[in-house]
Amino acid sequence: MAVGRDKTRILLTLPQDLKEELTDEARGDNRSLNNYILNLLLSSEKRTENDRD
């Protein structure tokens, strides 16, 4: 699968129980695991920026 020029792939190692928990949360939010993790990171970044203001 091709990745856009403005994106990059990474290898992430997680404990199996954490991956299962995140997968369940992603399903509940109707997202893929990758998209769910990206959404969590972006939301965290926005909260951090708002806390600085």
Automatic annotation (TrEMBL):
Q: Does the keyword DNA-binding apply?
A: yes
**InterPro entries from the entry?**
Arc_rbn_hlx_hlx, Ribbon_hlx_hlx
Q: Which GO terms describe its biological process?
A: regulation of DNA-templated transcription
The UniProt record lists the keyword DNA-binding: yes
Which keywords appear in this protein's UniProt record, sorted alphabetically?
DNA-binding
Query: What is an example of a GO molecular function annotated in this UniProt entry?
Result: DNA binding
Q: What is this protein called?
A: DNA-binding protein
Instruction: Supply the source organism for this entry.
Output: Proteiniclasticum aestuarii
